[in-house]
Amino acid sequence: MRLLNKIKQERTLVLDGGLATTLEGYGCDLNSSLWSSEVIIHEPNKVKQAHQAFTDAGADIVLTSTYQASFATFESIGMQTSEIKHLFDVAVGQIKVSVTDEQVIVGSLGPYGAYLSDGSEYTGAYEVSIEDYIDFHQARIQALIDRGIYDFVFETVPNFNEIKAIVNISFLNIQMTSHSGYHVPLMMKAIYLMVLSLRRYANILKSMKRVCLYLV
């Protein structure tokens, strides 16, 4: 089921719990630059166990274990493209066997700062070009789309230019859908913003509002 279809049911929806906290409760060590992605590599059964626990607790929406997963993240520890694709296979496979047709799987994606693993995901104190942000996110978004995930949440994105890049990706896919005749899933459903100044984000929030018009 898609997220918008679930929202149209017009009832209270239950989001899953904190994946990292749950994994730590299972004894997993997340003291790594890979964070929860470390578990995908070494203890994928624990990821499945967590997803299943959320399902059993009645979650309507379950997030993938890919917040920290990116090609750049895994390449930084020497992994090859084929190995990285396999990890996305594992992450998506573990969640798909843990949910029902009545639940929504949403791809969880963290910011560029999470890849840097220096705490800047909470401050936004990092800067690369818009094109670099797009390349960073586009690869991981496509990896999830290729595995049947079409709804996304971008979590803890505190950098203004990165938010603009994410919105640009969304508009690009809207245009592809409108002009090519092919169905291209909208790549952005929601963004969690650490907003220090609402005025600073006014223009981008207006852009997000325009994106949301395509969801109805």
Tell me what the structure shows.
- By secondary structure, the protein is α/β, with parallel strands linked by helices.
- The chain has a single domain (3-215), classed as Homocysteine-binding-like domain (TIM Barrel), CATH 3.20.20.330.
- It is built from 10 helices and 4 strands.
- It has helices spanning 3-7, 19-25, 37-42, 44-56, 71-75, 81-96, 112-116, 130-145, 160-180, 202-212, and strands at residues 61-63, 104-109, 152-154, 190-191.
- Strand 3, helix 9 and strand 4 form a beta-alpha-beta unit.
- Helix 4 runs parallel beside helix 6 (81-96) and helix 8 (130-145) packs across helix 9.
- The model is unreliable at 174-201 and 207-216 (pLDDT under 50).
Layout: helices, strands, pairs:
Layout: H1 3-7, H2 19-25, H3 37-42, H4 44-56, E1 61-63, H5 71-75, H6 81-96, E2 104-109, H7 112-116, H8 130-145, E3 152-154, H9 160-180, E4 190-191, H10 202-212
Parallel strand pairs: 1-2, 2-3, 3-4
Helix pairs in contact: 4-6, 8-9, 9-10
**Averaged pLDDT:** 82
Number of helices: 10
Task: Give me the secondary-structure category.
Answer: alpha/beta
Tally of discrete structural domains: 1
> Would you count the extended β strands for me?
4
Task: Report helical residue fraction.
Answer: 40-55%
Tell me, briefly, the overall form. globular
The Rg value, from CA coordinates, equals 17 Å
With strands numbered from the N-terminus, the spatial order across the biggest sheet is 1-2-3-4
- The CATH homologous superfamily is named Homocysteine-binding-like domain
Spell out the helices and strands N to C: HHHHEHHEHHEHEH
Strand fraction equals 5-15%
User: What is the CATH topology descriptor?
Assistant: TIM Barrel
| Main beta-sheet strand count, sense and barrel state | 4 strands, parallel
